[in-house]
Design a protein that fits this description.
With 291 residues, the protein is of the alpha/beta class. The protein has helices spanning 49-61, 81-88, 98-108, 183-193, 221-227, 237-248, 257-264, and strands spanning 6-12, 17-23, 29-33, 36-40, 45-47, 64-69, 78-79, 92-95, 124-126, 131-134, 137-143, 152-156, 159-163, 201-204, 218-220. The chain contains seven helices and 15 strands.
Length: 291
């Protein structure tokens, strides 16, 4: 019998980001997936309201957090994993292909030779197919690149955290035009996710509802296969690639991307403070075309 963890979603409206806490109701052991460290680019300010909401929830529910899990270095928000790890004493993890992302963006930011690209900013680097337990909930790691070089999915019992591959069925899929992305690779990753048991609950990484509307983030494999507008059964790989590439050509780069990636390849840490005690972010000029 497949174990069914309790899943709680948290939504950061400015970035459209979904964060999750899942836990085993039998043991009350749990994990946090893709927490947001709030960043306000107009002021160069960071705050912890999203992460503090998660902290309040796990305390109120009596959840013992065993892992803080990143699916990939996000392009639209900073990861709050280090902050939560400090508060909760839980290890942080990501997929081992993060090293390829670090190498790619080290070049984009012209970081010094001694910038580590070995993933040592995390406590654990998962390989494809790795398995671990959260209480009595078995968690399997699936590599699912395409949105980025190193994206992974966590399949926890009958719940799968599919990050920026799929969106809610009526919204389709996520973009594949970032450096290292590939619509063909994304298709292959999504089809592997859609080969999970039909009752598997898929939890997506983003939604962009109108003001006042709630985000939509959960649908089963069967629901995606029946009605996801980009990848439902009957749509071919070639059709998907054409649709995804055409859509991506119209999209602007995320407003926080050039700030977020240089923090997230550091595992969610700011650059080392300079002589005045403040950290500074670099902005590469001319490396990206305007959209």
């Amino acid at each position: 019998m497949t174990v069914s963890p309790v899943v709680k979603a948290f939504f950061d409206r400015p970035t459209g980001s979904l964060q999750y806490v899942f836990h085993d109701p039998e043991t009350m052991k749990g994990a946090i997936v893709d927490p947001v460290w709030n960043f306000y680019p107009e002021a160069g300010a960071v705050t912890t309201e999203c992460a503090d909401e998660i902290l309040a929830y796990v305390k109120d529910q009596g959840i013992e957090v065993e892992w803080i899990l990143d699916t990939h270095p996000h392009a639209d928000h900073f990861s709050a994993a280090p902050y939560l790890a400090e508060k909760l004493g839980a290890p942080r993890a990501i997929g081992e292909k993060v090293r390829d992302i670090q190498k790619l963006w080290k070049d984009k930011y012209n970081l010094p030779d001694d910038f580590p690209t070995d993933g040592s900013q995390w406590d654990k680097l998962f390989s494809d197919g790795d398995e671990f337990m959260v209480g009595t909930v078995p968690v399997k790691v699936m590599f699912s690149p395409g949105h980025t070089l190193g994206s992974i999915t966590y399949v926890a019992g009958d719940a799968a955290f599919v990050h920026d591959t799929l969106m809610y069925p009526e919204s389709g899929t996520s973009r594949a035009d970032f450096p290292g992305g590939s619509s063909e690779t994304l298709w292959n990753s999504i089809r592997a996710i859609l080969d999970l048991p039909p009752e598997t609950r898929l939890f997506v990484g983003h939604d962009y509802p109108a003001e006042g509307e709630a985000p939509k983030y959960e649908a089963t494999v069967a629901e995606h296969r029946a009605r996801n507008k980009h990848v439902k059964d009957g749509i071919s790989k070639e059709e998907f690639i054409a649709t995804r590439d055409a859509r991506d050509a119209t999209l602007k780069l995320p407003a926080r991307m050039l700030a977020a990636l240089q923090v997230n390849i550091r595992g969610g840490r700011l650059p080392e403070p300079e002589s005045d005690g403040y950290s500074y972010l670099k902005l590469p000029i001319g490396k990206f075309e305007p959209r």
